[in-house]
């Protein structure tokens, strides 16, 4: 009976460790996506005054974020407002 309990305890502990590793990895993936979106928006805003560069960086930000080009400006506004809190 003692060996049966030990074997099941090991499986339960390994399952708990696996769950925590999975949750940490998904959290890191979400955080890195947020940071790359924020970086793309910052590049776009940095070149806002130059018309040619502005369109290029707007298209780049749209491809990085996965948002349509005409909605990128609004998405970046919401993203930077989230960053303040």
Describe this structure in words.
By secondary structure, the chain is mostly helical. It has one domain. 86% of the residues lie in helices and 0% in strands. The chain has 3 helices and no strands. The protein has helices at residues 2-46, 51-65, 72-84. Helix 1 (2-46) crosses helix 3 (72-84). The protein is rod-shaped and about 75 Å long. The N and C termini lie far apart (54 Å). The model has no long low-confidence stretch (mean pLDDT 85).
Provide a concise account of the structure shown:
This protein is mainly α. It has helices spanning 2-46, 51-65, 72-84.
Name the features.
86% helix; 3 helices; rod-shaped
| Average residue pLDDT | 85
Q: Report the span from N to C terminus.
A: 54 Å
Q: Helix-strand pattern, N to C?
A: HHH
Rg, Cα atoms, Å:
22 Å
Q: Count structural domains.
A: 1
Question: Percent helix among the residues?
Answer: over 70%
* Number of H- or I-type helical stretches: 3
The biggest beta sheet reads:
none
Please mark out the parts with pLDDT under 50 across 5 or more consecutive residues, or reply none: none
Shape: rod-shaped
Percent strand: under 5%
Number of strands: 0
Structural class assignment: mainly alpha
